[in-house]
User: Which sequence fits this backbone?
């Protein structure tokens, strides 16, 4: 597609429920990244996929967080047993080599 | 540890002023540096990308400079407009590992009409 697409744009969930966030990267972009941004704070790196290599999961905050990517296409970020501290905007970005990043509009997750 | 600092954290100016946003980073061995704009409730929009071999990049009223040896980049906005109000993020990238990009906390700019 023309840009990075994320869905849903907003998600309200009850504490303890599981959620799935989706990211469609730009076609042909081999790298895909997930970031988290809490209200009023900077971006935190979560996970990075590069082609068929093993993902870099070093930024995932706990084992409740996981992500998958099918080849060089769609990625899903899953948060299990959501907590109120998980409330944030989750941003996805894709890139091709070192030529910069393109971000999606994000998913705003609210855990009540 | 690679860290990124942006100064000031917030800036409020009247319309028409020229202004400078500063970014500093530890470890000068960057691969490139990108400036982004973030509007409230939205994702990030890439403004300028400077490769490590470049000194500056220009796009319209925006000019970004890079002094790699001193670990600094500056975003210059000429003739500011209310539509420039947003948070501006600096993001240097280190090495060939694509996840070695770190974001500053941003400068929140308000341009008053």
Assistant:
């Amino acid at each position: 597609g023309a840009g990075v697409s994320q869905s849903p744009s907003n998600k309200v969930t009850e504490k303890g429920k599981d959620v799935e966030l989706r990211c469609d990267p730009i076609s042909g972009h081999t790298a895909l990244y997930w970031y988290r941004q809490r209200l009023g704070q900077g971006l935190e790196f979560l996970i990075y996929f590069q082609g068929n290599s093993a993902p870099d999961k070093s930024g995932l905050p706990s084992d409740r967080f996981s992500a998958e990517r099918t080849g060089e296409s769609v990625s899903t970020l899953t948060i299990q047993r959501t907590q109120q501290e998980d409330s944030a905007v989750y941003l996805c970005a894709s890139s091709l080599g070192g030529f910069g990043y393109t971000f999606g509009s994000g998913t705003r997750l609210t855990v009540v | 540890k690679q860290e990124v600092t942006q100064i000031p954290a917030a800036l409020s100016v009247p319309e028409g002023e020229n202004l400078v946003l500063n970014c500093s980073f530890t470890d000068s061995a960057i691969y490139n540096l990108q400036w982004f704009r973030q509007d409230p409730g939205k994702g990030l929009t890439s403004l300028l990308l400077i490769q490590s071999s470049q000194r500056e990049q220009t796009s319209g009223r925006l000019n970004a400079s890079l002094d790699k040896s001193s670990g600094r980049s500056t975003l210059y906005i000429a003739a500011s407009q209310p539509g420039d109000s947003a948070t501006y993020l600096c993001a240097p990238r280190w090495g060939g590992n694509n996840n070695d990009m770190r974001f500053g906390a941003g400068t929140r700019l308000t341009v008053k009409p």
The interface with chain B takes residues 4, 6, 31, 33, 35, 41-43, 45, 48, 50, 56, 58, 91, 93, 95, 97-106, 108 of chain A (CB under 8 Å). Chain A has a mean pLDDT of 91.
